[in-house]
Specification:
By secondary structure, the protein is α+β, with helices and mostly antiparallel strands. The chain folds into four domains: 190 residues, no CATH class; 133 residues, no CATH class; 173 residues, Zincin-like; 130 residues, Neutral Protease, domain 2, CATH 1.10.390. Helices cover 23% and strands 26% of the residues. The protein has 16 helices and 31 strands. The chain has a seven-stranded mixed beta sheet. A six-stranded mixed beta sheet has the order 16-19-20-21-23-22. The chain has a four-stranded antiparallel beta sheet with strand order 5-6-3-10, with no helix packed on it. A hairpin with a 2-residue loop joins strand 5 and strand 6. The protein is elongated. The chain starts with 7 loop residues before the first helix and ends with a helix. The N terminus is likely disordered.
């Protein structure tokens, strides 16, 4: 073993003693927590050479009843078994059963009685609304119309196969079903209808509306976890042919491309539709507000069937109403020109006419730049009350002006970022298709990060500050007893699930991009993950491994801290000591001075007394002549006097940092010099690798320092910035300045 020679600066910057007591394994690798790589999923994070996934094609006919708000449909499913094993049964999701009497969600939902409760909320708690939800499955048959044995277990249905479905084979079967559509004002959900008493019309937001295949994959087998409401969906890709029958005065927007516009659109509407497909610089109104107002009064008894085809999608949703205003424009996107389309009632104007379709375009632009070109022919933004919900090519988005048409800044910002977020979900998870039932963060978090990037780049003048490290501080310092790690399953996140899945993940990725990796390395790795897993089923390990594989940055400490723990960032700037080389150093060879501490001059404070400012000036230390034994077997020598002369005008600052919050983090230091200039210095998180609780580091500066601040721009989600400033007497005024920033 070679002898390691430790010089003065290393001695001055030692990481402290008793390191064994301060080690918690925060920098150890995640290998034991992640699935073992194999031929299906490689150690690099890419799909392996034997990667496989199932496929399901759908042929569906459905009719919407506008008189009693119900849906009736029939479907033919062709399921392809690409797995290397035979299947003896298939599992389907029955999402509407979450609204059925006796559902697991209702049975397991908590609640409490207060001294006063609004009638609306009490009615929900008591299931007092006169509504019968859930599927009525009228038949399950094979391709020859022979009944198939099937069992319904809450939101899951097992279909027993007449004989094993071998690898490479396909099986075709049919399901007939119906259900009542919930009024979203009374009974919330991710789909339903909204009633407008002023004109007596409905808007229907139809999603999770047909029995659909569960995912069968190499990690879990059948993903048939019950749908409880928080955990969303795991779905299989396939092609869809869907015929939607509605009143003939309705406008329908849906997943896929409209196949029969001549059958369902008036001549003028058809002309406008074709014009929109060629117009890139402005919207074209296919149905104007005045035309929509006229439709609200028609109440046609005739029916029309809208036919849509969609290729390689994981789901299908649609919206239908006679209230819809409809505008659209084409978007240049790589070698394609997808049509951005917005549907909204008059209650959404003037906000939606100004913002919706433009927000679709901005989203597709930025997401394409960071991931892959948008592969689908269209993207809809459809207005509803509340937040947002996403499906392939279709998103339901909240945001309406006040009744008098005024638009507050808050409403404007919220409307725009909701549209960006929900349209962005076309990428995560509709294309890069994660398991939402398990991992909220893989769709909501990755998407919230790109939502933030789109808002930052395309809407710099809007007052948007979400999904940043600064934005997550209050959450991070919350009650740890109630928190769960980001990696907790969606249904088990509790009240903090939203912040975990959305904001904390997005803030973590922002920190990863801006501070840990840098934009160039991060963007390349993030795009590599998107390219590798487009139209596939990635898992968390695939993301973690790809981000490291494409960047050469060891991030296991980052995933361990941000994703697997509930620790928070709180770095304390404990002390800053100022040193200078002592100029007058007689009889150096005769003095018995310890290298580790130097020869600290008297009068600079009592032994053990903590330095609180720079008022007493620098402490002097002696630079000794190098002893012969310190050179080991090296024959070359340095000029000790020349080295002393070179360093004697330098300022040495020994900084003591404490990891108070537990979450290891990069250290960002702002130095303010006596001449008023400033310098930002970034220290990688690996500074904590030998002592995870306290480190000391020496910085050599040409100029005299008057102020030191840790994380001056609040980039690391440090929950306590009051202990980030030195001198301590300047902390209060600097803290007030940080809060303003």
């Amino acid at each position: 073993m070679k002898k390691i020679i430790v010089f003065v600066l290393v001695a001055l910057s030692g990481n402290g003693i008793a390191q064994e007591k301060n080690w918690q394994g925060k920098f150890e690798q995640l290998d034991q927590l992640l699935p073992t790589p194999n031929s299906y999923r490689s150690a690099s994070g890419a799909p392996g050479p034997a990667y496989w996934q199932q496929r399901a094609d759908y042929d569906i006919s459905v009719e919407l009843n506008d008189e009693n708000q119900s849906l009736r449909g029939s479907e033919t499913i062709t399921y392809y078994n690409n797995a290397p094993e035979p299947l003896t049964y298939l599992w389907l999701q029955l999402d509407q059963n979450i609204l059925a009497d006796g559902s697991m969600t209702r049975k397991t939902s908590g609640g409490a009685i207060r001294d006063s409760i609004p009638a609306k909320f009490l009615a929900t708690t008591a299931s007092a609304y006169d509504f019968k939800g859930g599927y009525q499955i009228s038949s399950v048959r094979d391709a020859s119309d022979k009944p198939l044995n099937h069992v319904i277990n809450f939101t899951m249905m097992r279909v027993d196969l007449p004989q094993p479905l071998k690898p490479g084979e396909k099986f075709t079967f049919k399901v007939d079903w119906s259900y009542n559509i919930n009024d979203m004002m009374k009974i919330g959900g991710r789909s339903g209808c909204e009633f407008f008493p002023e004109d007596g019309n409905y808007i229907y937001f139809v999603a999770q509306w047909f029995p659909r295949m569960c995912v069968f994959d190499d990690i879990e087998g059948w993903q048939n976890k019950q749908y409880l409401g928080a955990g969303e969906f795991a779905l299989t890709f396939g092609d869809y042919k869907v015929r939607i029958t509605v009143p003939s005065d309705h406008i329908v927007g849906a997943t896929g491309w409209l196949q029969n516009p001549k059958d369902v659109l008036a001549r003028e509407q058809l002309e406008r539709f074709e014009l929109a497909r060629k117009t890139f610089d402005k919207q074209v109104w296919i149905v104007t507000e005045e035309e929509a107002k006229k439709r609200e009064k028609e109440r046609s008894k005739k029916k029309s069937t809208w036919v849509f085809h969609a290729e390689n999608v994981r789901d299908f949703a649609f919206a239908s109403s006679r209230k819809f205003i409809w505008d659209a424009m084409a978007v240049k996107n790589a070698d394609k020109a997808p049509l951005a389309q917005s549907l909204y009632p008059k209650e959404g104007n003037p906000l939606w006419g100004k913002e919706s379709t433009l927000a679709i375009k901005n989203t597709l632009d930025i997401y394409t730049e960071r991931t892959i070109p948008y592969p689908y022919p269209t993207a809809y933004s459809i207005n509803w009350v509340g937040g947002g919900m996403e499906y392939p090519m279709v998103s339901f988005n909240g945001g309406r002006p006040a009744k008098d048409g005024t638009i507050s800044d808050r409403v404007l910002v919220r409307c725009v970022y909701i549209i960006v977020h929900e349209v962005g979900h076309n990428y995560f998870p509709m294309i890069i298709n994660s398991d939402e039932r398990q991992w909220t963060w893989m769709d909501e978090g990755l998407n919230s990060f790109l939502e933030k990037e789109t808002m930052r780049i395309r809407y710099p003048n809007l007052n948007y500050s979400s999904n940043t490290p600064k934005d997550i501080v209050n959450f991070m310092k919350g009650d740890k007893a109630m928190m769960r790690p980001i990696m907790a399953t969606a249904d088990n996140q509790g009240q903090y699930g939203g912040s975990n899945g959305y904001t904390k993940t997005a803030a973590a990725l922002t920190l990863l991009r801006e501070t840990v990796m840098g934009p160039e390395l991060f963007d390349k790795a993030f795009q590599e993950f998107s390219v590798r897993w487009a139209f596939k089923h990635p898992k968390p390990a695939d993301f973690f491994r790809t981000m490291e594989d494409a960047s050469a940055v060891d991030l296991d400490w980052f995933w361990r801290g941000w994703f697997y723990s509930t620790d928070h960032v709180d770095i304390t700037l404990d002390e800053v000591k100022w040193y200078k080389v002592k100029k007058s150093q007689p009889d150096l060879e005769k003095r018995n001075v310890k290298v580790a501490g130097g020869d600290v001059s008297a009068g600079k404070g009592k032994p053990g007394e903590k330095v609180t400012d720079f008022s007493k000036g620098p402490q002097d230390f002696t630079v000794l002549n190098t002893k012969e034994e310190d050179y080991g077997q090296f024959r070359a020598r340095i000029d000790d006097n020349a080295m002393r002369t070179k360093l004697e005008e330098k300022n040495f600052y020994e900084v003591t940092l404490k990891n108070t919050g537990g979450l290891v983090s990069p250290v960002i230091i702002e130095w303010t010099y006596k001449d008023g200039s400033k310098e930002i210095e970034k220290i990688p998180a690996e500074i904590w690798r030998l002592n995870e609780k306290e480190v000391k580091k020496v910085f050599v500066k040409e100029k005299e320092v008057v102020n030191v601040v840790i994380d001056p721009k609040q980039e690391t989600a440090d929950v306590n910035i009051t202990d980030n400033v030195f001198p301590k007497r300047a902390a209060e005024s600097k803290f007030d300045q940080l809060k303003k920033n």
